[in-house]
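Progress narrative, Year 2. Work on Cytochrome P450 from Roseococcus pinisoli advanced from sequence curation to structure prediction during this period.
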Amino acid sequence: MVPAYPAALTAPPGIIRQAVLARRSLLYGWTEDCYDASDFEFRLLRRQVCVFNAPASVKSVLVTENSLFERKGAMMRRSLEPLLGDGLFISDGDTWQRRRPLVADLVHKARLPLFGPAMTNGVTELVDHWLTLCAGEEVDLLPTMATLTAGIIARAVFGVSLAGEALREIVEGFAAYQAQVDSLNLLYFLGNPEGRSLHGNRKLAETVGRIRSVIEDVIASHRRGEGDEDSMIAAMLRRGHFEGEAGLRNEAVTLFMAGHETTATTLTWALYILGKAPWAVEALRQEVDSISGGQPVEVGDVPNLLLTRAIIDETMRLYPPVPILPRQALRDARIGSLDVEQDALVLVCPWLLHRSPDLWDDPMAFRPERFLGEARPQPYSYLPFSAGPRLCPGMSFGINEAVICLATIMGRMHLELRPGFVATPVCRLSLRPRHPILAQVRPR
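Result:
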């Protein structure tokens, strides 16, 4: 089974067409040869753009020469800074060095037993709600999964169950934020090191205010002693080192946004794929039944849910949550066969790597067996969570959450997509479907 993907261009686009395509999606400008496992460069107006698809070069950029490329690309910083401030996802230098160990400890896999009940309870509540729906009623998968994962991360980060209105503010706010952010920063490609700032965008500022107000209210409740002492935010307040109230808020927003958006999109794409692959649904259900025995799926079950984990892994190969990892070259460098200029836009693209015919057999097909048994991807060919020092610190949290949620949903429910529906993936900040993915849900 080959899930939907945008067709590659037959010829490189000109400047105007490139700009038009980028505004629609950052996936639409690639030609077939861009999927080869080799490095290439081009100029977009006055800016050198270097794309590294050879695994050895990917390792150089993300690991061995990371100090030259630790800074996120100017366009990503511009897109996220109004919301995340100096949060870990886009910070660098001393700020990143100070906060990375603190944040990594908060979401370390050793703390998963504390957060597992939030995952199990959250998805169980969703499925119980679905059981009350009228026959034939449809759900929109992405906002539903976003509300689910927002509720889970709220319990883990803040130790509270956010009211429905607060969750809606965050889920709808982030969706609006992605729609409002411009994917193409023209001034940057004309030579300005940072490009045009978004701080004067009134509509965007209002959206940021909606999201931040929810986070700030929860932080305030913790300061009043109303929070869970095992939550991430309680640990952050005890440890300090976040440079004041703004620093604490920025890391809380970063944890919340990264923690709910990437898992929500992964689950949405996994449910879409399974809606097209009944053979995989049947195999997954057999596994879940044998492991859980009809009981709620818990974090202790995850190591034994091998096929469920493989389906999540293969979903992230086909639909990586963050399809493009941009970096900015701090000085001139030689990587692989390319001479990289200072301030060049350096791209490692999981979207290209994960679909390269040089690195994967039948790369466009859904084949979860790639991740079963002794099978392992070639190093630096599979990057759903990046790699090197900037490997996502919440990787274990996200994988366990996705496995628990998918196993619970498919173990108890049957989802049926609209006949003939084909999803269109688009990339702005994360990889989302262009149109709603609607499914009827009914008891298994």
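The radius of gyration is 21 Å. The domain at 15-443 is CATH 1.10.630.10 (Cytochrome p450).
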